[in-house]
Model the fold of this input.
Amino acid sequence: MPEGDTVFRTARMLDATLTGHQLTKSDFRVPQCATLDLTGYPVESVASRGKHLLIRVADLTVHTHLMMDGRWDVYAPGERWRTPAHKVRCVLANDSFEAIGVDLGLLRVFPTRLEHKAVGHLGPDPLGHAWDPEEVRERMLMRPDLPIGLSLMDQRNLTGIGNIYRSETLFITKVHPLMPVGAVPDLARIIERCFLLLHANKDRNRRKTTPTELTDPYWVYQRTGRPCYLCHTPIEQMPLGPPEKDQERLAFFCPTCQPVPYREQTEPAAATAV
Ligand SMILES: [Zn+2]
Done:
């Protein structure tokens, strides 16, 4: 699933190609927008908000979400698409470029003044202007019993974190994905690491969370059964998220570097007996 940095780059690409230009063509290939034609209207701006993409045309907002497999591609006018036409959900073109939205998980259009209804619930965006780590911490601590691995992906806490950054951030900070938020020793450090990883990758085409000496881009993500780079213990995986999306919701971790929580609760009992 695309993470916040992917959507950020997509927004930047569309902003560079569409903003400030009148549309010479618009084609919405979803039933609820089928009759909408924005030809002749100028694109005012393109912005990302976590994993949401907002294309503002005149007084309207074209709101898309890439969900699992969606993406936006940009072509020169008349250039042959490298994707089957039936996968294309939206076409926005001007004199110089043609942008196509492929396999978009969400596509809807509404007055820009109603944007808050679509994205107002989202927490602070590490790649946005109003990033506020303390607010993120407060939002996460409102549900102290929730496993940190779920809390990080709750877009109401902070927005833009998906499966990859969840696993990588928790490995880097040595916290097990099941540890309750309220028991995490340094929540602020985890939040800061999310911010740093997203920023480190926002200008890269290939995401990487490991140091340059490592060829593998990730510490633990999709490395199940392979040795941890720090301690050689085989990396493990566990489903952690909505059951209907298990494959995309697997959390990856090193059982040695990220010890399971609750161990501390059993060992002190023995200590008391002594
Ligand atoms: Zn390890």
Notes: The chain has seven helices and ten strands.
